[in-house]
Amino acid sequence: MSEEVAIRLPNPADAQQLLALLDRLQQESDTFTLADADDPISPAQEADQLTQITQSPRHLLLVASLGTELLGVCSISPTPQGNVGELGIAVEKKYWHMGIGTALVDEALYWADTASALQAIGLIVQTRNVAAMKLYQKLGFTRTATPPKLVTDDDGEQVTAVEMVYQIAEQK
């Protein structure tokens, strides 16, 4: 494979391929869940959302691509607290353990530290997802004092999850 994986902002032309990637990720992982999965959107609506996201200091969407193929996605979305973003990440299974998830999260945290209006990035991770927990710890996330809780995975199974947070450096 002579091409390198690129970490980049998606553009409106990526909308259809991004929707297809999200569908594949949803099918192959029981730790990746889309909030609005039951309310599908069209490629035109997705293209519009991509444009809006690029103009927001509280939203970020990154994709990992190999040539023209999208193979991973990372997002930061504001929570109801307003100054805290929630991290979401997924990479196609055939590309796991190649450093792509690390590169996506690292780039997202760089954006959070240097360009966002956020004070912290949080996430909830299933404790059975050991690789993800190690990745988050390596990149500076710490477990919060919030006790573990049960979440429902895509198969309807109750699994234990913990909350982790990344504190953003003093405002720019």
CA-based shape: globular
**Whole-number tally of structural domains:** 1
Q: The CATH topology, please?
A: Aminopeptidase
In the CATH hierarchy, what is the architecture at level 2?
3-Layer(aba) Sandwich
According to DSSP, the number of beta strands is 8
Mean of residue pLDDT values: 85
Biggest sheet overview: 8 strands, mixed
Q: Into which percentage range does the β-strand content fall?
A: 25-35%
Task: State the fourth-level CATH superfamily.
Answer: Gcn5-related N-acetyltransferase (GNAT)
**Helix content range:** 25-40%
CATH class placement: Alpha Beta
Number of H- or I-type helical stretches: 4
Order of helices and strands: EHHEEEHEHEEE
Specify the oligomeric state: single chain
Termini separation comes to 39 Å
Derived from helix and strand composition plus strand pairing, the structural class reads alpha+beta
Rounded to the nearest angstrom, the radius of gyration is 16 Å
Instruction: Flag low-confidence runs.
Output: none
Q: Would you write up a description of this structure?
A:
It is a single chain. The chain has 172 residues and is of the alpha+beta class. The protein has one domain: Aminopeptidase. It has four helices and eight strands, in the order βααβββαβαβββ. Strands 1, 2, 3, 4, 5, 6, 7 and 8 form an eight-stranded mixed β-sheet that branches. Strand 4, helix 3 and strand 5 (120-126) form a beta-alpha-beta unit. Helix 1 crosses helix 2 (43-54). The radius of gyration is 16 Å and the shape is globular.
